UniProtKB/TrEMBL annotation:
GO cellular component annotations of the record: plasma membrane
Gene3D superfamilies documented for this protein: MFS general substrate transporter like domains (1.20.1250.20)
GO molecular function: symporter activity
Cellular compartments annotated: Cell membrane
Family stated for the protein in its record: Belongs to the major facilitator superfamily. Metabolite:H+ Symporter (MHS) family (TC 2.A.1.6) family.
SUPFAM superfamilies noted in UniProt: MFS general substrate transporter
Keywords: Cell membrane, Membrane, Symport, Transmembrane, Transmembrane helix, Transport
Domain Major facilitator superfamily (MFS) profile: start-end pairs: 11-427
InterPro entries assigned to the protein according to its UniProt record, in alphabetical order: H+-coupled_symporters, MFS, MFS_dom, MFS_sugar_transport-like, MFS_trans_sf, Sugar_transporter_CS
Protein name: MFS transporter
Transmembrane regions: 20-41, 47-71, 83-101, 107-126, 147-171, 183-202, 239-258, 278-296, 308-326, 332-356, 368-393, 399-419
Length: 429
């Protein structure tokens, strides 16, 4: 095996493991939302407690645009590898800390405040992960396989969600309600420490990307110009940033509604048992991962714009009909509906990371990706479960989340139509 292929393989493994660890935490929190609502917000009714749990989930996203700027600066200025090694260390430490938080019954209001503090730290560290891993792989991959290799990032994200779903499903099956509320909810967060250390070790053994090293050499005599990538991003590429935020809207809303919020929606709103809802989500996540790799390959062949437009159109036309079919259906029908959502989402998610790396040049690639991706997720992604629950609460309409998703698809479609095709070319320098 050539040196280049070995380096690409090691970069792929490092990106996959790191992103897996980051998103396993988000899965654990999202899938245990009903338990966390009782443990940290026991003085509220069921809906208010769930809203409070999702509000803490959403507030952690506030720091993500700021984190995107900071991690982007580190990644563009000091190297992709350094940013990724530090982001996974901070995330793992914060996630591990959740396992030892006191409950509301023990310390009162300090419990949700401490939970919020840790979630803010997690949001900050996560803001550098997705963008950094995507840029890292895109800059290592051959031009004609860039879509396939960068789709490892959303695939590893889904793998983290899948493992989280399986883990929580096992907890619901093995523990009774009292055990789950007393100590069972802590178990997933304990895994963060060993997994995070493994991911950091692998990343530190990597060399930085060829593109970054070439850029460093080219800019040796232009150090001052290279010090603040974010200034150039907002000065020269601000229109591309706005387009990137618009395109990412669909990913932000659909990802958290379809893959994270759906088990809670099925159990809390549709009356499905928690075990069945987690099982359906687990199976659909497994198929979603397979779809991701297919869509990454198709984007290399047909282009990023083609795939993103197709995904937006499908969400516009099928979201409301599919949501309307969820009520009162058998397990198999609900599973098929979730698989259909997963297919549409994979069409978007398997293409988006490569698209966002291709619209920004090397000098601001990490910053442009991180800021636009995290801004969209802060505004529309992290708030999606909260907004969905709130919309149902105030309107009494269980179809409200579907219409929210339709609006996001419309915004993404308009933004995608405003850009040229980015595939079939070398990464811009």
């Amino acid at each position: 095996m050539s040196v280049e292929r070995k380096a690409l393989r090691r970069a792929s493994v490092a990106s996959f493991i790191g992103n897996f660890v980051e998103w396993f935490d988000y899965a654990a929190y999202g899938y245990l939302a009903t338990v966390i609502a009782v443990v940290f917000f026991p003085q509220t009714d069921k809906t208010s407690g769930l809203l409070a749990a999702f509000a803490v989930f959403a507030i952690s996203f506030i720091v993500r645009p700021i984190g995107g700027i900071i991690w982007g600066h580190i990644g563009d200025r000091h190297g992709r590898r350094n940013a990724l090694a530090w982001s996974i260390l901070i995330m793992s430490a914060a996630t591990f800390g959740i396992a030892f938080l006191p409950t509301y019954a023990q310390v009162g209001m300090w419990a949700p405040l401490l939970l919020l503090l840790i979630r803010l730290v997690q949001g900050f560290s996560a803001s550098g992960e997705y963008a950094g891993a995507s840029a890292f792989l895109a800059e290592y991959a051959p031009d004609n396989k860039r879509g396939f290799y960068t789709c490892l990032v959303p695939a590893s994200t889904a793998a983290g969600l899948l493992f989280g779903s399986l883990f929580v499903a096992v907890l619901y099956n093995l523990l009774d309600s009292q055990q789950l509320h007393e100590w069972g909810w802590r178990l997933p967060f304990l895994l963060a420490a060993p997994l995070g250390l493994i991911g950091r070790y692998i990343r530190l053994r990597l060399q930085d990307t060829p593109k970054f090293l070439e850029m460093e050499k080219a800019l040796e005599n232009k150090e001052a110009e290279h010090k603040a990538p974010i200034r150039q991003l907002f000065g020269v590429y601000r229109l591309k940033v706005l387009v990137a935020i618009g395109v990412t809207c669909l990913n932000a809303v659909a990802f958290y509604l379809v893959l994270s919020y759906m088990p809670t929606y099925l159990s809390a709103e549709m009356g499905m048992s928690e075990t069945d809802s987690f099982m359906a989500s687990t199976v659909s996540l497994a198929t979603y991962i397979g779809f991701i790799f297919l869509m990454g390959k198709l984007s290399d062949r047909f282009g990023r714009k083609t795939m993103l437009v197709a995904a937006s159109v499908l969400f516009l036309g099928l979201t409301v009909p599919l949501f309307s079919l969820l009520n009162g259906q058998s397990f198999m029908v609900i599973l098929l509906i979730q698989i259909a959502f997963g297919l549409m989402l994979a069409m978007n998610d398997g293409t988006l990371p490569c698209f966002l790396t291709e619209i920004f040049p090397t000098r601001v690639r990490y910053s442009g990706f991180a800021f636009s991706f995290n801004t969209a997720n802060a505004l529309f992604g992290g708030t999606a479960p909260f907004i969905a629950t709130w919309l149902i609460s105030v309107s009494g309409d269980k179809m409200a989340p579907a219409w929210f998703l339709v609006v996001a698809a419309a915004v993404a479609l308009l933004a995608t139509l405003a850009v040229r095709e980015t595939a079939h070319h070398a990464l811009p320098d």
